[in-house]
Amino acid sequence: MNIAVFGMGCPKCKATEQNVREACKALGIDAEVTHVADPREFARAGVRMTPAVVVDGTVLFSGKVPTVEELKEALQKLRS
Amino acid sequence: MRDVVVAGLLALRDYVATHVLTCLVPAFLLAGGIVSFVNREVILEYLGEKRSKLSSFSLASIASFFVAACSCTVIPVASGLYFGGASIGVAFIILWVAPATNILALTYTGSLLGASMALARVVAAIIMAFLVGSTMSLVFQKEHTAPAPSGESQPKGAILEKRSALLLFLVLLSLLLPNYLIRSGPYLHKVILWAVLTVLFAVYAKLTLPPKAIREWLRETLWFVRLIFPLLLLGVFVVGVIGKLLPETWIRAWLGGNSMRSSFLATLIGAISYFATLTEAPFVSTLMKLGMGKGPALALLLTGPGLSLPNWLAIARVFGGKKALVYVTTIVLLGTVVGWFFGNFIFAP
User: Fewer Cβ atoms within 10 Å of its own Cβ: the N or the C terminal residue of chain A?
Assistant: First the structure.
């Protein structure tokens, strides 16, 4: 699973990345978490608002910092 | 040295203590509400559509109020629009208007410097937005290679639900009424009116919204507080210190009156130095007490939060150096003229 956090290094984006890592750890998912900071990539991925979480090309969250719980729920749904 | 620190602390007491409850708390709640209740994705969809310049520029100016309230989100939003196919004019209007006049900045400006200054700030920012948008699209008309958005509009979700719209309106009342109904008398009167209105919207929220929505709203509000409040405290302290150190005669000589030169200098200070969101208002208020004219004050209010050296570099990195150069030059020229014009013809006694 490839999880990308989109954001230009603002505190909200860092918090998002941390929550993503925590959610993965809690679920035991061995995912590659990357941080995309180039705004040109945002448009290409269909991300309008940052911070955004994109899993294998699908935008799961955008424009807010998802909580660990929300991330767990969404990731679980993707896995099943 | 001690004097200087005391001046900084006094400024903190003046600007923050008397504004936290009746101005900052409701403003943060309003900004948080806008972020969590307003469907910004839908607004951005509208902005990406093909339409006439007049309508897309107006839409972009209005949308900026709702799309981003802090400068850290505005560059990704603007570049996302640009690389997603919106016109360059629209992208730079968002880039300009959102920090120059967002809801937080406006309310703080209004309560520190008066409603007329806040109103001037909105009007001037929107006039400048149209000119900046036109300039950018004129200069870079041919360069835009991003895929053009499809002309037909798809069905979209609602921008804002009725219930949350009414809630935002109530929060807005709790922000405006204490500051505009009670102009004199002890600060406590304002606090009482604020408390009554706050209880009112809290009850309304509890009755109409699901707990999840309320939690989300408070979470977004807390983000604004966390991001902006520490910088505001620091900024206000620094402003107090600067006000103590700068000789009044300098301010009068360089920024006094409403001449083109003072306006240009004020614009330049605003365009180069970094102001954390909201700190421009106490800075301008301090300088005005030391003799800065109203026109230059407006120019500094406009360019302060919208532009800074780090911000130029970020824009250059994302949009390219040439666009950044044209943008910054246009803003500095326009800021100077707008400051001069408002100082001589609008604020003139």
Answer: C
